[in-house]
Write a structure and sequence with these properties.
This protein is α/β, with parallel strands linked by helices. It is 47% helix and 16% strand. Helix 6 packs across helix 7 (135-143).
Length: 429
């Protein structure tokens, strides 16, 4: 079976290699970590027992925070290591954990590479965030009697039909997973349909509720407010945006600014992907607005002189600071069919939160927030404009939405404790 997997991977690599090469040249991606991707990685403390956590990108890395904290408390004699797939994910993991944990690129799932990685790392358990059940990786762990646990597990509406089409290929791999810890009952049923065992598929809730900090203050936000020069102004933050959304947001902002009563409204756009920063900067100036790039003043004592500029958040790891200063938050990748960005973060801060209809990556959170009137979903540009106006014109209504959203986050926390309890029970077997 591993030979078949390797053959399929080789064909896929040939097909996507032009795309990879383009991103290397044009976006400066995939230039680092090749030795680690080939399985050449060492632990910091090879004499200790080891927990290997794998998180694909930024969102999954952020979801590890409470798990890592609790595992360190309960298993102080274990070394925790974290692998990540994307460059942005690696950057975020290193920002979160620094030199405290070993952070490295996830090895390619070719059988010989996976063999090399396991031989060097010698993990005692592998925790895969959300899904990421790779065939050769899982088979190698199974042969070595190393438990594999899917943590914060989910299979989206878009992914499930695709997995079902290749169930004959997926099922043998899923059967080798020791535990599926699912975000909700629907996801648990999908894991079962694809080969999971009923006794080892458990609903624990979403870790992202736990990692969403219930707070109105974020470290560094005061300095950011001073640098942005937003005293006595209202700030609309569009966070985690995707292609085509920024144009919609800028058009809405332009419409609002035509009315005198919105003169004190500012706009900050924080794109999800760093390779799009320059593209969005050009779009802002093409739309007729003066541009201020936060990255140019972040590490200085400067501040933006013109209070009418549109702010581009072109740094990584500062979105929470922008959210903490916001009057209104629009959560991106949701007006376009990209699955949405994390709306729990802004709701936890007590912010008026808006998102579009394409939020399949956060289905449960969206359902809970909308049911409790803790956020508003807009279907298009016109509805977005009307909703922002309503938030600005009716402060009492805005406070109600913000309060309800924060309560939803509070009421749904607790997944970390359930998850860690299941992991500890597995390790004691």
């Amino acid at each position: 079976m591993k030979c078949l997997n390797d053959f399929i991977y080789l064909l896929a690599l040939i097909v996507i290699s032009p795309k990879i090469l383009y991103r290397v040249i044009m976006h400066n991606r995939y230039r680092q970590g090749w030795s680690e991707r080939l399985g050449k990685v060492r632990r910091n403390f090879p004499d200790k027992k080891c927990i290997w956590i794998h998180a694909v990108s930024v969102g999954e890395v952020n979801a590890t925070k409470t798990i890592v904290s609790e595992l360190k408390k309960n298993l102080p004699d274990y070394e925790i290591i974290i692998s990540v797939t994307t460059d942005t994910g690696i950057e975020q993991a290193r920002k979160l954990y620094g030199s405290e944990l070993k952070v490295f690129y996830f090895p390619f799932d070719f059988s010989f590479i996976v063999h090399r990685a396991f031989k060097r790392l010698k993990p005692d358990i592998c925790l895969l965030m959300e899904l990421e059940v790779w065939p050769n990786f899982t088979s190698r762990a199974y042969r070595l009697n190393i438990p594999v646990v899917v943590v914060n597990g989910r299979i989206s509406d878009r992914s499930f039909p695709r997995y079902s089409l290749v169930k004959f290929f997926v099922k043998p791999t899923f059967k080798k997973v020791s535990l599926f810890l699912a975000q909700n009952k629907e996801y648990a049923e999908r894991f079962l349909a694809l080969g999971g065992h009923s006794k080892t598929t458990i609903v624990t809730g979403s870790l992202k509720y736990d990692t969403a900090q219930i707070t109105e203050k974020v470290e560094g936000a005061d300095k950011l407010a001073e640098q942005l020069n937003i005293a006595n102004q209202q700030l609309w933050v569009a966070g985690g945006t995707g292609p085509k959304e920024e144009k919609i947001i800028l058009d809405v902002f332009k419409t609002l600014k035509q009315e005198t009563k919105y003169n004190n409204l500012r706009l900050a756009i924080v794109p999800r992907k760093p390779e799009r920063f320059d593209e969005v900067a050009d779009l802002i100036t093409q739309s007729g607005f003066e541009l201020a790039r936060y990255g140019q003043i972040k590490n200085s004592q400067e501040k933006i002189a013109n209070q009418n500029t549109v702010i581009l958040g072109d740094t990584m790891g500062d979105l929470r600071k922008f959210y903490s200063l916001a009057t209104i938050v629009f959560v991106g990748r949701s007006l376009v069919p990209m699955g949405g960005s994390d709306m729990m973060e802004s709701a936890a801060m007590g912010k008026c939160t808006i998102f579009g209809p394409h939020t399949f990556n956060f289905k449960e959170a969206v359902k809970a927030l909308l049911l409790a009137e803790g956020a508003i979903e807009v279907k298009d540009e016109k509805k977005l404009c009307r909703t922002v106006q309503k938030y600005l014109d009716e402060p009492q209504f805005a406070r109600k939405i913000a309060h309800n959203g924060q309560q939803v986050i509070k009421e749904n926390q607790g997944a970390t404790q359930k998850t860690v309890a299941a992991i500890l029970a597995l390790l004691k077997k």
